[in-house]
TrEMBL record:
This is VTT domain-containing protein. It comes from Streptomyces caeruleatus. Coiled coil: none annotated. It comes from the Bacteria. InterPro entries: DedA-like, VTT_dom. Belongs to the DedA family. Its main location: membrane. The keyword Zinc-finger does not apply. PANTHER family: INNER MEMBRANE PROTEIN DEDA-RELATED (PTHR30353), TRANSMEMBRANE PROTEIN (PTHR30353:SF0). Residues 46-163 form the VTT domain.
Length: 199
């Protein structure tokens, strides 16, 4: 990863991975973001506050990941919006998607989009919520602001894990592994909260 994270292409790789993992949730976009942030922490020279050009910039990495997350959500949302009867039938066959549609509709109708933010951390949750919001023709004004908040929250959390993990444990594979473990733990917690029955 060293040669990759030392090049400007890391932003392209991270952006594409984050954008596309709404359709292919197995893509390791979170791992890539954390690894790039770990590399950034290794070369930032935290004591001087200088960021050399050969490592990713923390702010640029966060904005890249957040923007790609929102764009991916928007693409999935628009495709599902135009999906028509075939997509409706596919969703109707899936108990998980049907349940997600109902819960999302209730959450957005009440003016609360915390479910959208929570789903960004859960494995495949982002896919389910984005597709469900589009398939049920939820207003973009109801969905997109929450998608933006979700993308920024997830990107900030992932970059912070990689950056501070490297600051505390050193820029090693152990720091990356601990940071990735923390990301997976957040995903497990989000999944648990999403599966709880509403009070």
């Amino acid at each position: 990863m060293g040669s990759l994270t030392a090049a400007p292409w890391i932003y392209v790789v991270v952006g594409l991975s984050v954008l596309l993992d709404v359709f292919v949730p197995v893509l390791p976009s979170g791992v890539l973001v954390i690894t790039a942030a770990t590399a950034a922490a290794a070369g930032t020279g935290a004591a001087t506050g200088q960021v050399p050009g050969e490592v990713p910039d923390i702010l640029a990495l966060t904005l890249c990941a957040a923007t790609a997350s929102v764009l991916g959500d928007l693409v999935a949302y628009r495709l599902a919006w135009r999906g028509g009867a075939r997509l409706d039938r596919a969703i109707a066959r899936s108990r998980r998607l049907t349940s997600a549609q109902e819960r999302l509709g209730t959450a957005l109708a009440r003016g609360g989009g915390a479910l959208v933010v929570l789903a960004r951390f859960a494995p495949a949750g982002r896919s389910v919520v984005s597709l469900s919001a589009g398939a049920t023709h939820r207003s973009p004004r109801d969905f997109l602001p929450w998608s933006a908040l979700a993308g920024l929250t997830w990107a900030t959390y992932s970059v912070a894990l990689g950056y501070f993990g490297a600051q505390w444990l050193g820029p090693t594979w152990l720091a990356t592994a601990v940071s990735v473990g923390a990301l997976f733990a957040a995903g497990a917690g989000a999944t648990y909260l999403m599966r709880r029955k509403p009070a």
